[in-house]
Task: structure prediction
Amino acid sequence: MAQLFTKKANIIPLYLLIGIILFILFIIGAFWYWGSPYYTDVGYQPEQPVSYSHKFHVGELGLDCRYCHVGVETSPVAGVPPTQTCMNCHAMVKPDSDSLKVVKESWDTNKPIQWVRVHKSPDYVYFDHSAHVNAGVGCVSCHGHVDRMNVVVQMEPLSMSWCLDCHRDPVEHLRPLSEITNMEWKPGANHTEFAQDLIQELNIDPPTNCQGCHR
Amino acid sequence: MSETVNEKTITGRTYWQSLRELSEHSDIQELIEKEDKINGFSRREFLGLMGASLALAGLAGCRRPVEKIIPYVVAPEEIVPGIPNYYATSFQRGFDALGLVIENHEGRPTKIEGNAKHPSSLGKTDSFTQAEILNLYDPDRSTGVLHNGDSVTHEDFYAAWNKLYENYVSNGGNGMVVISEASIAPTFIRLKKEFHKTFPKAKWIIHNPVSEENVIQGVKIVTGKTALPHYNFEKAKVILSIDSDFLLMESGAVRNAMEFANGRRVQSEKDDMNRLYVAESSMSVTGGMADHRLIVKNNQIADFTVAIALQMKHQGIAVSGVDSLATAVEFEEHFIKELVVDLIKNRGKSLVTVGRNQPEHVHALVYAINYSLGNIDKTVSYYSIDNDLMPNANFIENAAASTVIIIGSNPVYSATKNSNITNLIKNAEHSIHLGSHVNETSQQVEWHINQTHFLEEWNDAQSLDGTLSITQPQILPLYNGISNVELIGLMNYGEFTKGYDLVQSTWKNIVSGDFDTEWKKTLHDGVYSVNGKSPQKLSIKNLQFNGEFKSSAHDDIILELKPSASTFDGSFANNGWMQELPNPVSKLTWDNAAQMSHRTAKKLNVKNEDVIKISNGKKYVLLPVWILPGQADDNITIELGYGRTNAGRIGNNVGQNAYNLMNADGNFLIENISITKIGTTYSLACTQDSHGMNDDKLADGAIQERLPSIIREATLDEYKHHPDFVDHAVHHPPLKSMWDEFEYDESPQWGMTIDLNVCTGCNACTTACQSENNIPIVGKREVHMGREMHWIRLDRYFSGDPDNPEVAIQPVACQHCEMAPCEQVCPVAATTHTEDGMNGMTYNRCVGTRYCANNCPYKVRRFNFFNFSKDMPEIVQMARNPDVTVRFRGVMEKCTYCVQRVNSAKISAKKDDRPIKNGEVVSACQQVCPTDAITFGNILDPESKVSKTRENNRNYALLGELNTKPRTLYQAKLRNPNPNLIKQHS
Result:
C-alpha cells in the first residue's frame, strides 16, 4: 500500500504541539495582561458631569482635600461633597460660568449631581478611609497626584496584591499625620527610622488576614 | 417503646429531635412516613434554561459598569456618610410598648434593637420586632389612596371626608362605626376621647384577633375593675403557667423572658433557681422550659384550674368562689397535690398565670388563687385599662352603620365569618380602611388609604406600667401614607393635621417643666417617666360562679387555635423572614398544620402530611397532619395567621385560614368538630432534621450515644452534688493535635458562651442574625431540601417520655474552632483563621466545593445554591446592612461572629489609640437575646463578661472530644424538678 502521507508530514505533529503550547501561553498571557487591574482599571478616566478641575482647585488654588471630602478622617467613606460645598464659593465666584451650569441647576432644582465613580473596590471588600488616614497613609499613595489632574484618573490598580504589598510592609507609604493631604511631601533621608517610630507610636499593625477587608 | 429508646446512656437520658428519628424502632414509624413530592425541572426545561443563560452570559461584556456617586445637595448636619446614626423610638403593641433604638445608614433604617432604658424591652426585642424592618420595605405595601379600587389622591379623600364630616358633626355621629386595633398610646387615647365628644352617637369598636379581652374581663369579674396583670417573674420562686406562653406569645413577653431568666440564672452550684410548672395542651416555648409539664386537653384547662383551687382549699387555703366549683375530670392527684404544696410553701413568692385565650372566668379564678397565695402586688400587680379601650371580639353582629371606618386592623380576614363584617361594609354607604397593604379588607371598602409603618411616623406609645415614649420617624413615609392618629385627627377636625402636631399637643399636657427641653430629652432617651403609673389597688369581690365552669370529661376531638409564632395573627404573613422562621417547637416553616398526638393520629388513621378536612358545621379547612410530641390526645392545634388571600407575594395562599373555623363567639377553642381523611398528602417543609449533628446515616446506637454529650443537662440537685457533671458526659483519651498549634495569646481573642439553662428557643437570635447579616430567604422548596440559610439554628431535642417529653434547646452557629476542620479541607483557602481567633469566610475566594460543609461536625455552613439576593426588588435591598457582603450564587457562608461589628470597633479603638473596651463589641444574637443567654467578648480580658461566664463550671465544648477547640462554649442546662415529683426513669 502506498504511503498516505509523505515523509515531510512527520513534522506536522511537532508544529501542532508547538502551536498549541504557544496558543495556550498566549491565552494565559492575554488574561495576565489584559485581564489584570493594571490594564483594566489603571487609567480609568470617565467623563464627569461637571468639568471640575482638581488641578486648578487643589494644585493652583491650594484647597485642602478635606474641605470637600469631609468624612475622610472619621468615616469609612471620604465622601463626595454636596452641591452646597461648591456654592459656598461659587455663589460669589464666577456664578455665571458655563462650567458651573450643572452645579447651579442642581442647586436650583435641589437635584443632586450624579458623579461617576472612579476608584472602586468590589462589593466584597470593606475599605475604611479613616483607618488609613489616621495611620499615616497619605491621599497621594492611593489616588496619585490628584492635584495635577484636570479630570480624575485612576492611578493605582487597587487590586488585592497591591493592597497586601503595603499591608505587609507599610514603611515606604507612611508619613507624618500632619502631611496626609500634602501631595508634594517627600520622605526624608531617615525615612525608615521615622516610619518605624510611627509604627511604634500609632501601633500600626495592618491586618493581613482575610477578614481585615472581607466580611 | 423499643429497647434503644429505653437504653440508658451516659446521663441516663435518650434524646431525639423528631418522631422520625425515634420511630426507627417503633410503631409510630408508619404514621410519619414522608412523601417527597418536590417537582423539579424536567430535563428538557433545564437544558432550555441552561442554553438561554449561556447565550445571555456571552452577551454580557467585560466592560466596567459605570457607577454613580450621588451626594446630597445640602448635606444634613448629623449625617456623615458611612457612619450609622442611632435614634430612639418606640412601638405600641396592644397594651404594651417596646422601646427601640434604630440603626440608620444615611437616613435608611436597617436594624432594630431594644432600648435598654425602656422597662418593657430592657434593651431586647423579639423576632416580630426584628422583622419589622422587612415590613417597612415590603414591596407589596400599599402606595396610595384607592377609591373603589381606582387610584386617587389623598386630597380627594380629604375632600370627600370633609363633606361627610359636616353631616356627622350635625347629627352627632349617628351611624358612624369605627373599628380600630387596641392601643393605650397617649395621643390615640386623647384623640379617641375627642372623637367621642365630637360624635357622641358614633360607635367605636376595638378589634384584635388575638386580644387581652378575656384577661381584662376576668379581672373585672373578680374585682369590678378593668385591669391587666403585670408580672414580675424575677421575684417568683415557683411559677405555674396555665396554657400561657408568657415567654413568647403573651403580652409583655420580652420583659417576661428576661425576668424569668434572671430568676433562673445560675452562676455556680451555690445558686438557686425558680421552678416552672406548665399545664398546657400543645407544646409551647414556655412548656419547653418547664420543670414539670402536665398535658391537659384544652377544654379541660378550666377543670385543671378548678382542681388547683379545690386542692388549695383541701390544704387549708381558702380561694374565693371555690365552694361553687367542682370538676369531673380526674387529674394526676399526686401531681396536683405536690404542685399546690409547692405554691403554698412559697406564698408571696409564687405566681400563677393563665393564657389570654382561656375564658374570662378562668382568669377570675386565677386572680382569686393568686390573691389567696398572697402574690398580688408581689409577683403580679395590676394596671388599670380604661373601660372604653377594651377589645371586643364578637362585635359586629349588632352593629349597623352608614359609614364604617377601619383603622389598621384587617377584620375581613380575621373576624369570625358570621360576624357579618362583610355585610356591615356592604350595607354602609361609605367605608374607609386605613391599612399598610391592599389586603382582604381593603378589597371590600370604598376608600382605602395607605398607612405608614411605625418607623415612618410621629406617634407615641405607652407600656402597661405607664412608661411613656415617643415614636419618631426614622425615614420619610416611603409611599406618603398617613398614620392611625392622623386619620383620627382628620375624622375629628375635618381637616388633615400632621402627626407631629397631634403628638406635640398631647405631650404639652403630659410633660412638666420646659416643653422643648423635655421633648428633646424624651426623643433622645426614648422614654419619659419610667413606670409612670402605679399599680391599681384592687379589692377582691366574693366570687360566685354559676355554671361558667363546665366539666368536659368527654374524649371527643377538639380543636384549639392559637396565634402563630411566625405570622402572629396574620399580620406578618407577607414577611419572608417570619414565614421561613422555623416554629420553635414543630420546626415547620411556610405552612400551618393540624398538630396532633400520635394517639389521635392513630385514632383518625392518618399519617404525617395526610390531608384532613376539619369541619365545624358547614365551615371547614383542609390541612396536613403533623404529629407532635407533648400534644394532648384528642386535641388538634392549628396556628392562625395563615391562608391570607391578599397579603402580598410572600403571604398569599400560604397555609390555611383557621379563622374560618371560628364560631360567632370568637372563641379559639372549638368543640363538636368532625374530621375526615381526604386521601391526598401535602408536603411540609420542616427543618428539624436539616442540619442534624446526628447524621441519619450513622448507626442508631451511635446517635443515641452521641446526643447526651451534645446536649448536657442535670437537675439542680445533681449539679449541687456534682458541680463537675459536664466533664463526665464524655470521657476520652488526652487530646493531641496532629499539627503545631497556633498560639492565640494576643488580645483580643473573641469567644462566646451560650447558657442553655436560660435559652428558651424563642428564635429572636435567628431573625436578628438574618437582619444583621443580609441572610437571604430561600422559600419553601429550598427549605424542604434542607437548604435554609439561617446562620444560627435552634436545635430542639426531646427527651424522656415520648408522650410528654422534656425539651432542651441548643442554639448552634459556627463554633469558631481554633482547630477548624473546615479550614483543613478548603482547597482555595477561602475559609481561614484570623489572629484574633475567628474562623473567617472569604466569599470571593470560595469556589463552592462544599468540602468545608461536609467536614464541619456542627453542620453550620450554608451554601448559596442560587442567587437568592439578586432579583430582590430595590425596595427590599434597602433593608440590607451595608457593612456586610451580599453573597452570590455558589459560595459558602456561615456565622462570622459579626466580624463587621468587631472590625468597626477595632478601627475606632485604633483611631482613638486605645484597646477595645470591655463590652464594645456585641454580636447581633447577643444584643437581641431576651434572656441574655448569649455572651460574646474578649476571652483574654479577665474583666469581660464572657471571661466570667467561661469560668462557670457548667461550661463544655460542643463535640470537644474531636479536639476542634471551639471558641463557643455551652453552659449545661439545669432542671429544677420538685423532689417529690421526680419521675421514675426506667
